[in-house]
Every structure is written in structure tokens, then in C-alpha cells.
Design goal:
There is one protein chain. The chain is mainly alpha-helical. It contains 9 helices and no strands. It is globular and about 75 Å long.
């Protein structure tokens, strides 16, 4: 949430809030994939999970891989810091995750294609969609890390300055104004205009890459996969306004000259 987060005594620590609202999605989907086929009496009792075609499990695996990164690895391991999240945002995101997982899980585990015959004409779509998903995920990870590096660099700079202050031989240099003192708590709020990758053309390329991921996911399932289609629509509808607001924030913070011709999320368009 970061630039658009609000101050409140009710705020939840960012890392744990993010994990708490994102992780239930993939856990719910996996539970449905495990249990619904048995409920629908698909296959033999001991083989109900294997009765589903491998394409169904491949889509479930892609969904899970994304959220293992997004809900666990990113907030708990990789991110140097995360802004607190208001309970209203937490509950809204949790509700979306659960609804999305229930819809997708139901389609994948029993109400969509459930035999190899259902998938026989979609081999090319499965390969193409998987490639799109992989490219989007890798792009998402790369651009996330560009943003993380800004804060990692700020943290390294803070440690260097603290070391200088602790070293009597370096204090004089600090007092002469050669190195301004830094508030340690300010590291979590360091912002810059990134330059690497697609940041040269847009301010939110990680949003664009995530859309590419889920368009690929939808492509695998096909037009008939209504839950995946709705997922893409919801992603764009919720993230595009944030990107537009974020662009205005960058212009106010850094000025039009610094932002340049960068668009919000889609190069040369929006």
C-alpha cells in the first residue's frame, strides 16, 4: 500500500497483514482441489484427486506458485519493510482472496473441464498461456526487486552513517555537513523514480507484469473459464486506478521533469 496508506491506531504491521490476507487464497484453492472431486464422487475413493486432468493441477500449481511468492516469500523474506495496513483494507483483500479461490477452485476441481477429452483441443493454449504466465511472473519479480533495492540501498547508507557517528574519527566530518544525519525510521519511507527495466517507460511495470500473468492463466482455461476472466477484470479494475493515483503522487513528489514521459502502467498508452 505504501504511498497511499493511512495513519491509524488500528493499522496492522505490514508484513504480517499482507501474509494474512493473501495466503488464505491459495490454501483455500488447494483444499477445494483436494476435497471437491471426492464430494462429487469423481473417480475411485482413493484416487479422486488423480481423476482430475493434469491441466487442472497445472493451473492450480501456477496459482499457488504466484502466491507462494506474493504471500510468503515477498513479504516475510525479501521485502526490507512494508507499510502498515488498515483493517478495512485487510478485510477487503481477504474477502477477495477467498471469493476468488472458491470460484477458481470450484471450476478447476469439478465444474470446469474434468476429463482429458475436455482439454484435447487446448494443448497450444496451455503452452502459450503457461509461457505468458511465466514471463509475467518473472517480470513481476524483477521489478519488485528494483523497488526493494531502493530501500536496501537506503538501509546500507543508514548503517554506514551510523557507523561513522559511532566512530570518533568520523564525527568531525559529519559535523562539518559532509554527511547529513539520517533518521533510521525514514528508511521505510524512501522513494525514488526507478530507472531499470520497464520503469523507463512506466511507473508501475510490476502491475503490468501481474496482469500478463493472469491473462496467461485465463488463456490456459479459455474463454469458458469465467472465474479466471473475472480475476483479470478485477485485477485491472482495482490496480489501474491505484496506478493512476500513484502517477499523480510521483508528479507531485518529484515534478513533471523527473517523471518525464512515463505512463502509469501501460507503455505509450495509460
Amino acid at each position: 500500500m505504501g504511498k497511499t496508506s493511512v495513519e491509524s491506531r488500528l493499522n496492522i504491521p505490514g508484513k504480517w497483514a499482507w501474509t494474512g490476507m493473501e495466503a488464505p487464497g491459495f490454501l483455500t484453492l488447494l483444499f477445494i482441489m483436494w476435497s471437491l472431486p471426492r464430494e462429487l464422487a469423481m473417480g475411485m475413493e482413493g484416487e479422486s484427486r488423480m481423476a482430475l486432468p493434469w491441466e487442472n493441477w497445472a493451473m492450480a500449481a501456477l496459482f499457488t506458485i504466484h502466491y507462494l511468492y506474493r504471500a510468503l516469500l515477498s513479504p516475510l523474506v525479501l521485502n526490507p519493510s512494508m507499510s502498515p495496513i488498515h483493517p478495512v483494507i485487510f478485510l477487503a483483500a481477504l474477502q477477495f482472496q477467498l471469493c476468488n479461490a472458491i470460484c477458481l477452485g470450484g471450476w478447476l476441481a469439478g465444474y470446469g473441464p474434468v476429463t482429458a477429452t475436455d482439454w484435447q483441443d487446448r494443448k497450444l493454449a496451455v503452452v502459450t498461456g503457461t509461457i505468458l504466465f511465466a514471463l509475467g511472473l518473472l517480470g513481476n519479480m524483477y521489478h519488485d526487486d528494483v523497488l526493494r533495492e531502493i530501500r536496501r540501498s537506503a538501509a546500507r547508507e543508514m548503517q554506514r552513517r551510523e557507523k561513522r557517528r559511532d566512530d570518533p574519527n568520523e564525527n568531525d566530518a559529519d559535523e562539518e555537513g559532509q554527511e547529513p544525519k539520517t533518521n533510521p525510521r525514514s528508511v521505510a519511507k524512501v522513494y525514488m523514480v526507478p530507472e531499470n527495466g520497464l520503469f523507463r517507460w512506466v511507473l508501475y511495470p510490476h502491475y503490468l507484469c501481474e496482469w500478463i500473468e493472469w491473462i496467461g492463466f485465463w488463456f490456459i482455461g479459455g474463454w469458458a473459464c469465467v472465474p479466471a476472466r473475472c480475476f483479470v477484470v478485477n485485477e485491472v479494475a482495482s490496480m489501474l486506478p491505484r496506478a493512476m493515483i500513484g502517477k499523480r503522487w510521483y508528479v507531485r513528489r518529484f515534478g513533471k521533469a523527473k517523471v518525464g514521459n512515463r505512463k502509469a502502467v501501460i507503455p505509450w498508452a495509460v
